Amino acid sequence: MWGNKGGVSIRFNAYGCSVCLVNSHLAAHDSELQQRIDDYNSILDHQKFIDSQAENIITHDYTFWFGDLNFRLDEFTAEEIVHLVEKKNYSHLLLKDQLRKVIKLGQAFSEFTESPPVFSPTYKYSIGKSAYDISKRKPAWTDRVLFRFTPNAYENATLSLKQLHYHSHDLYEQSDHKPVTSSFLLKTFSQPKEKQVFFLPIKDWRVNSDSAAWYTFSEGAEPSTWDWIGLFRADYSSIDEHVCYIWAPVRPSSNTPVLPSDTFHLEEQKDSATSSCSASMVRSHQGPWYRVVFADQTLLIPGRYRLFYISSAFDDILGVSEPFGKLKHISAIVYTALKMLYMSFRTY
């Protein structure tokens, strides 16, 4: 697929259950129904994941597919559609909805469920107004949210999924589409099966000084050979952007860290939008505790940083520290010298 059409997906695990989100923009225009069908099947066939338990979109425990799917209303004229919308006779319009037709025929999205829309068709509106623009297009429900789940995926649990709402938002007038939202309540395992790493809050590190960090694992978990801990700038955009890394120790420290107080944690939170582990959660862990030390040449440029714990077995992020390392009262000359040293180090 080319131009502004196509699909993008993301997957993650939520408390032991696999979840996949797919957003797509399919082919436009009333006459391009077959192209929309082909687009759907192309995305479904070509999207693969490196996970033996969920290798494609529909093998996840929960899958949500949404976006501008561009399915139109057949047979009605634009004026007839507007008239039925004004009377809120949506059920009559949905009889000619292309998406519901292809689902029934098994041509596309037959693996998914959609609750019948109880809101007006979301396209095409005059920008800046709440009135349809029917000069070239007929109104249609182009923007949709579909879902699927596998209730009996596990022997010891039955999964469930409940849609809480499915609405359009007519007050938004910045586009010729009205946005659509939906919320769901899904059942997961009560305890996460995934291994997790919890970092203690890190006080500011200093340039040209050895710097340490403490962390522990969730109950029953332990490190694997070739796990690594990466130092990232707080505004990172990719897992490949680590400043440096070291191999994670496989044996715990013989010492025990000083656990943070709630006061310390709250002070840290004022400067952080996210938290890797609350003070009370840290204190609830009995260890063992692991200590990692970065050499004195690690932190060459003042700024905000995070530590990431990366699993070698799953190529996955098991834990992220809170931001740290905001160095204060450094002169412009020192900062420039450090930056030049850092750039020469990267070039080398």
UniProtKB/TrEMBL annotation:
One term under GO cellular component: plasma membrane
A GO term, aspect molecular function: phosphatidylinositol-4,5-bisphosphate 5-phosphatase activity
Listed InterPro entries: Endo/exonu/phosph_ase_sf (IPR036691), IP5 (IPR046985), IPPc (IPR000300), SKICH (IPR041611)
Alphabetical GO biological process terms: phosphatidylinositol dephosphorylation
Residue span(s) of domain Inositol polyphosphate-related phosphatase: 1-192
Transmembrane domains' residue ranges: none
Family, per entry: Belongs to the inositol 1,4,5-trisphosphate 5-phosphatase type II family.
Protein name: Phosphatidylinositol 4,5-bisphosphate 5-phosphatase A
Native source organism of the sequence: Caerostris extrusa (Bark spider)
